Every structure is written in structure tokens, then in C-alpha cells.
Amino acid sequence: MLSRHAEDLYWLGRYIERAEDTARMLDVTYHNLLESPAIDETRAWKELLEVLFLDAAYPGPLEGRDVSSYLVTERANQGSIISAVARARDNARGLRDGISTELWEAINVFYLELARADFEIDIERRAYEIFSSIRSRCQLVSGVAAQTMPRDEGYRFMLLGWMLERAEMTCRLLAVRYARLAGEEAEMGFHTWASVLKSVSAYEAYLKAHDASLNPTKVLEFLLLSQEFPRSVLYCLQLVERLLERLAESPQQTPVERAIGRVRARAEFCDISVIVNEGLDQFLEELQKEIYDVSEEVEEHFFRAGTDLQLHSYRWA
Amino acid sequence: MEIFDEVHGPSGVRPHYRQLMERLDTIGDADLADRFGLIESIFRTLGITFAVPGHENGLDRTWPMDLVPRIIPGDEWRHIEAGLIQRVTVLNRFLDDLYVGSQEAINDGIVPRWLIESADGYVREAHGIPAPGGSRCVVSGIDLVRDDEGTYRVLEDNLRIPSGISYVLENRVAMTRVLPVGFARHSIRPVDHYGASLLRALCAIAPPPVVEPTVVVLTPGVANSAYFEHSFLARQMGVELVEGRDLLVDDRHVYMRTTRGLKQVDVIYRRVEDEFLDPVVFRQDSLLGVPGLHGAARAGTVAIANAIGNGAADDKGVYPFVPALIEFYLGEKPILPNVTTYLPWEPDHLELILGRLDQLVVKPVAEAGGYGIVIGTDADEATLAATAKALQANPRGYIAQEIVQLSTHPTFVNGHLQPRHVDFRPFVLCGDGIEIVPGGLTRVALREGSLIVNSSQGGGSKDTWVLEDGLEDAVTTR
Amino acid sequence: MRLEIRYLNEFAYSQPAWESHNLLRACPAANDHQRVLSYRVDVTPTTPVHSYTDYWGTRVDEFGILEPHDNLRISAESVVENGPPHEPSEDAPIDSLAPLAGELSSYLRHSPHAVWDDLIHETAREAIEESEGVVEAVTRICDAVTASLKYETGATYVGMGVADVLSQGKGVCQDFAHLGIAMYRSVGIPARYVSGYLYAADQTVAEAPDDPELDVQTHAWLEVFVPGHGWWALDPTNPQPIGELHVKIGHGRDYEDVMPLRGVYHGGAEHDLGVHVSITRERLAQGTDQ
């Protein structure tokens, strides 16, 4: 297929996942603060912005209302939910022949809802409703995609973007939260870990697999290495690896396949207790870097030539 | 002035319309109104809309199709077909002769050299670019009108990027849903093979050694008002719809960037205008084109349809010379006559035009879409004065024509059938030979008395039924 | 005179450029007054160069470089032998131009860089008011152009209209040529733009230099059509007739048609261009070099 279409689908997946992750983390942060007044609000919002790599760019006060509007409706913020959905919609519009009508409609309705003029006012009054509606809109998009898209090359590129974004996001969440956890009181630790799990919709799944004591090592292991939980880093990487094998369709291993093989193996064969003892932050940093390398290789291998290029011209007088 | 009505002749409803009109009578206006509403929703569901220029941010309008189809009997169609084949054959000959030949027609004074050299659509960079088989007008849209006697006349040639074929096909689809047609004895000739025919024509112009050519449709992108048609045609042909940035040129060969690497492209059905095609040679600020494409075309490794520079032949100032070109190249009389045209750059014509400005229609040579046309009988004093001034200042910029009272056709407006003016744009395909899908775009001016049928100016369209020979009475509808 | 011309155009990109596509018009024209003994183009990074003759009869060298590159070096070396000035031997009546209007219409109409206004037309008309023949009229307009503009490097930019150039009163060789073309066409004298090389130390003084080898620039002048004679070359930047010091590359309606180098490339990089032309007079055995 055309590189441009593949790239648009890849980014469509990434944008929707990004919107969903952002909404979920906002939701959890917001409600944690309501439930546990002891938590330092400024620090909580700062951390959220750090996870999203937006702490440096954020111009406003570290308060719930401001950070929320910045992350949801601020068009000037390239990392806001509305920016992500708007870009997903732009991509979808250019791909009308490459995606199902249902998927286009799901994304379009999502965008139109976010773009409604009164949305901003809503956010102050009905935070919970809004965050959960964004999440369910994202889930609707992924559900519609899964139900209506043929399992062809295009679908694989979309899923590839989706999974890489998810893996990256979970890593980032863990890295930021772990850095803070180092000196936590046990009790505070519980809330933090519970919110980490909730941030990736893993709280219930974790309780099912383990118990409510929330052993930090087990939480980490669950989010990093679970073979069953669909948002764990390993789960995402395994899926990415299978997708890339199909997409590369080459008898020899391509650089992109080597890159994913490397990072998947690092995750799969690691010993969580060793990691915790020797330094989780360094492990997460390396993991993030290797996931990033995979994204780079994907662009290089499949899209590089198709990127939207600036054209300059020169004439000589 | 007498006006020719397509349906009602001097002795009542014309034979080929009888069954249809009886059927419409039985259905009744109320039911027709319901069905009319259905059209809107069908087109909206199909996503068939068009953007109105000047309303960039407005919502696209759905394509206005009328309920009452136009019917062309078989013998009439054969006449039209013969005339179109003759005309397009000659236009191709003329263009090929101009760009890669010896310019016979110009050297023999059939068309003045200065006229061609001053045509906006004449592209000097197209000199030397081969067109396999001499097929430069792979897709032509020839606009026909019927005068007060019912004679089909050519109003305009569109040899660059004629659009509208998608509406022809979608009109037929919608028509069969809204007014189910009993194709008794298969009397209505089908149009749905257009995609296959277009692909065949495009393959025919592939650079010679290529056996199974890779064909693409090149679009300026989603922002283009005809994007729907571009994507429609790519789908109908089963080929890739690409933008300029999807293609690249390496050592004078064109490639498409795919997830499996570069794939060579042999034929480009481009819907990008000449001046945007290649920023190396044409407009340097164009991001719509493909750098190096001109060189590849010149080297003959890729075929471009329609060929670059066709505007030299469909310039309105060149139009009056087409009948002479037909005689020059074929030694034949034109089967489809032109409309009587006056040339403001000829002093005696200019005098005549200025004297009869309120009876003529004046058209800018370079505009399309019905823009800038002044119809003398409808214009006020100030407009006529401004037109006279413009003609004198830039005679090469205009032509003047006798006003043709386009034929009328019953059209469903405000709940009733009312006569409205129509024209007709058949699409002519030229690959190995010339093929014309039986039918075309009938455009209708929805405003009472209006002669401007362009969709951008409040025009609608009709499904157009070409009947099999000898089956004039066979149309039945349920 | 036999001249060896070395044209060198170099680009250094601050970030890699890729998918660069270029058209070079640097090859001397072959005609009755000028013989091309050799011509050779070299491009680095190495890439195939294809050439063709364009509508105007100018040789175009076409090349593209796909791979990312930090530098682009284009060199064109030619050896030409040209002859003395070829002036019209007798004048032609002004009205002998009228029948040629159709044939030469391209050289009589406005073109992007030669759009005239009333002032330009008026200046040209006044200059030829009492001329009896084409040659006389042509000479007078050429003198008018020379008198209207002062040569000043950097006073104008590509795309500046000739009307603005005239009101500003200064420009470079290109502006002299465009203004002249506009004036000629405004009074019905067919005129075209010429791109080429000038073997002179100063663009405004067409004198053979003392040094056999000289760094110069590309140059622009014009040609007008004189009935009974054909195209006649004049250089409004210089009052002297055109002869052995001028080496023609090609002609067109204006600069746009015969631009020495045009192209596009991808990459967000700044480019740094430097053009060098050096010309060497060759010693000939029989002393035909004057």
C-alpha cells in the first residue's frame, strides 16, 4: 500500500490511544485528589504533565481546572486530547477509501463532540462524565475498528501505532511514578499504586490476578510483563512483533524486526526482582529508548519516503 | 424565439418519451415529491457532494439530481457519437501535430500562429513530449446544446481535466432506486462500464514496452472540490489514488512510494492542472506536483493523461477554428456544428459585436464553470458598457456568440414539472480507438429561464438514457 | 576568438538535502556566429545527466539526486569560437514590422518579467519619435535604456517589475535587458531576452580584458528582430556592439525561459550558493585571436 496511507493509519492509531491514555490519567489524578486530600495537588498535576512530556510546555498554574482544560480542549497544545482527535480525524478523512465508513463516523462524531463550543464549560461541572465519555469514545473507535476493518495491511499499521503508543505510555507512567515512589510511606504507596493501576484500567484485572495488598513489585510485574493483560508493556510488544513480522514480509530479518525482537526479549526475559534491586528507573529508561528505536525503524522502513516534505526551490539570478 | 423542448414536440409528447411521461402522470406530483426527497438522502449517504467555490468553509452541497431523466433515441445518439469521434480525432491530431509534429495546420494558416501562442493553455514545455498513439485527449468532455430547431451544436470542448463523469454513474444508480426502471428488452444502454473503459484507454497509452502497466490517479488532494470524483474513479478502475508526494522520479522514471518500497508507475491519470504538475519546470511553489515528472514524460517512460498542454486546443479563442481543422485534417464537413461565434480581435467582428452586444453572449476565453459570462439580453446598461470596454481593451480575452436558446426539458421544481434549459456533456475516451459511454451529464438550469447550467451557479443534473437502436418505445417504468 | 568557459555552481547545505531535481542551461548556443567546440557537465554527487533541446533551442541538462547529500557541485565547461559583430547592413522601414506580428507574437506580448506600463511605453515612443527605420529606432531605445538605468549590483531582486526598476533608476544586466524588451515590445518591435557569458572585467564596459584568464559572471542582453536582417543582438548594459566578447547560451521571452539553473529539493536546510564563471582566452596557432 501507499506509504502515506500506511503512515496515516499508523498515526491514527497512535492519536486515539494517546487521547484515551490522557483522559484516563486525567481522570485518575482528578479523582485521587478528591478522595485523598493529603496528596500534594501541585505535585500530582506536575507529575501528570511529566508523564505526557508536557511539563516544560505547560504555561498555567498547577491546578486541576487549568491542567484539565490544557490537556483536553486546548488546541494550542499539540498534546491535548482535542489536538490528537483532530489529527486522527484529518488522517481518517484522507483515508476514506482505506477505512470503514463506521470508523470514519466514530472518529468524526468524537471530534465534533469535543469541538462543541460549550465543552469547556462542561469540564468544570462534570469532570467525571467528560473523562469517562472521552474514554468510551476512544474505546468505541477501537471497537468499531476491530469490528469493521478487514484484517489487511492497513489495519495492521493502525494497530501497530496503537500498540507502540500504548507501550510507550505505560513505560512513561511507570517511570514517572516510580521516581516518586522511592521515598513514599507505605500507606501513600498504596494510593499511588492503586492510581497507577487505575490509570491503565488495570486495577480490577490486577485484583483478579493477585490480591488487594498491592505489592509494588507485583504491580510492576503486572504492568510490565503480564502475558494476559492487554495493556501491559510485554503484551503490547509481543503484538507489535507479530504485526511487524507480517508487515515486513521479508525472508531476512529487517532492522525493524531486529529492533522489536531486542526490546521484546529484554522485557520477556527479565527478572523483576533483579530489576527492582538494581534500579527500575534505568531499566525503564532503556526500555523506553528501545521502544522509541522501534518507532524510528518503523518510520524509516515503511514511511520515510512518504513523509510530508517541505519543498524548497532555488533560482539563480 | 422558439424554444425546442426535448419532450413536447409540435404534435404532443415525442414517441421516445411517451411511456415515461405516462408513468410520471400515474405517479402524481405528491409521490414524485417523496421520491425527490429520497434522492437527497441517497446522495448524502453515498457521500456525493460538491464544494461550492467561494464557500470554502461551508458544508458541501449534495449533488442536485432531477427526477425526470433525459432520453436520447438510438439514431440521435449515433449522430452525436459520429460527431464526437470526428471532433476528438481532429483535436488529437491538431495537438499532436502542434507539440511533436510539423504544425501543419498552423503553417497552412488554418489556425493563426499568434492565436495559439497567446493561448493561456499553450505549454511550450510540452514540445517534444510524446503521446503514444497520438492520444493526447484521453478523456474529453464535449459540451453540446440543442438550438431552437433541435440541432445538436458544440458549445465548448474540455480537453484538460473534464469532470462530471462520477455524477453520470451515480445518477444512474440513484435513478434505479428512485424510479425503478423496467429494463424491458434492455432498451436503456448501460454506463457502468465506464471505469473499465477508462482503464483500457489509459493502458493503451502506456509507454510501449510495458505489458501490464501500473496506472494511478493523481489528485491534488482532499481539499480539491472534485476529490470525490478522483477517488471514485480510482475505485472504479481498481487503481491507486495518489497525491504528488506519493510519487518520486529517479533517473527519469516515476515511482510510487509504498510500504514495500518503490513501485514504478507507467500511466498517470492526472487531475492536477498543467502548471502544478512539476515544480522544476512549472510553478515552483507548487506542492501538488512531482519534481521531475516533466522529464520522465519527455523521456517517454511514463504517459500522462490528459497530455500536458491540451489547453492550446480547448481555448475558447481556438474553438471557432475547429470546423476548419476538421476539414483540414479529415476533408470532412463537421457533423456537429459550432455555435456562431465572433472574434473581437478581428476589427469587423468587433464592430459587429459592439453593435449587437445586447443580443449576444460574451465569454472570457480562459474562464470555466460559467464564470464571467455576460448574456446580452439579460445584462443591464452598466454591464454592457463594462463589457464593451473590456472587449476593446483585451480583444484576445473574449469571444462573442449568438445566444443559443438551449432546449428545455420538464424538470421537477417546487413540486411540479416545469420546463428548464438543459445542456449535455458526453465523455469521450481515446486510447487505441475512441469509445463513448452511451450517455453523459445532462445539466439543467434550475432557475426559470436561466441558461447557465453549471453546478457552481445553481445548476442540477439529470440521468441521461441512451436507447438501443429501434427501441424507442420500449422504456417502461414501474 | 576562442574562449574556454568554466561555469561552477556550488551548494552547501546545513542539513542534508534529498530528492533534488535540477535543470541547467549553461551550454553556449551553436549558431552562425558561434561554434561550440566542446561542452561537458559534471555533477557531484555523481548522477546521470540527460540533456535535451528545449522549445527555444537551448540545451538543457537535467539531473536529479535522490540520496541525502550535504553538497552539490555543478560544473559546466565549454570551449567556443565566436566571430565579430554582425550588424544590420541597411535599415528597414518601420512598417515592415507589421506583417511579422503574427509570426513573432511571442516576442511582442507581455511576459512575466517584461510587463510594461504607460510610462515605459511613453518613454519608448518618445525615443523613436523621429526614427525613420527599425535600426534607428532600435538604437535609440537601446540608448534610452542605457541612459535610464545606473548599473548597481543588488539594487533589484528576481521578480521585480520593470516599471519599478525604471522608477528606481538602477539595476543589473538582467534589468537592463528586461526594460529594453518591454520598451521594444510596447512599440511593436519584436524583442527577446538573451542569457550568456561576457568576457569582460566590468559588465558595463565590454572591453577585452588584459588578463587571458578572468573571473566573470553570467550576463544578460537582448535581441530585436530587424526585417531583412533577422535577430540583432544589443547589450543595453554596454553601449558597444555585441561581438566576440559575448557568448550566448540561449534566448526566450524573458529570464524565466532561459534561467541558468532551476530546481527544487527536499530538506529543511538553508542553502549557500556560490556561482563562479571564469573565462580563458585560448592562444591560437595562427594568431586568429585578435
Protein described:
The complex is a heterotrimer of chains A (317), B (478) and C (290). Chain A has 317 residues and is an all-alpha fold. Chain A is 73% helix and 2% strand. Chain A is built from 15 helices and one strand; from the N terminus they run αααααααααααααααβ. Chain A is globular and about 55 Å long. The mean pLDDT of chain A is 85. Chain B is an alpha+beta fold and 478 residues long. Helices cover 30% and strands 24% of the residues of chain B. Chain B has helices at residues 18-46, 74-100, 104-107, 113-117, 165-178, 194-204, 227-237, 293-299, 311-314, 322-330, 347-355, 381-393; strands at residues 8-9, 12-13, 49-50, 61-62, 65-72, 139-146, 152-158, 181-182, 215-218, 240-242, 247-250, 253-258, 261-264, 267-270, 303-305, 341-342, 360-364, 374-375, 398-402, 408-413, 416-425, 427-430, 434-436, 441-445, 459-466, 476-477. In chain B, strands 5-25-24-21-20 form a five-stranded mixed β-sheet. In chain B, strands 7-6-22-23 form a four-stranded antiparallel β-sheet. Chain B has a four-stranded parallel β-sheet with strand order 10-9-14-15. In chain B, helix 1 packs across helix 5 (165-178) and helix 6 (194-204) packs across helix 7. The relative contact order of chain B is 0.19. Mean pLDDT of chain B is 89; it is low at 53-59 and 472-478. By secondary structure, chain C is α+β, with helices and mostly antiparallel strands. Chain C is built from four helices and 14 strands. In chain C, helix 1 packs across helix 4 (173-186) and helix 2 (134-148) packs across helix 4 (173-186). Mean pLDDT of chain C is 90; it is low at 286-290. The chains are: A mainly alpha (317), B alpha+beta (478), C alpha+beta (290). At the B-C interface, helix 4, strand 11 and helix 8 of B face strand 1, strand 3 and strand 13 of C. Strand 1 of chain A pairs antiparallel with strand 13 (261-266) of chain C.
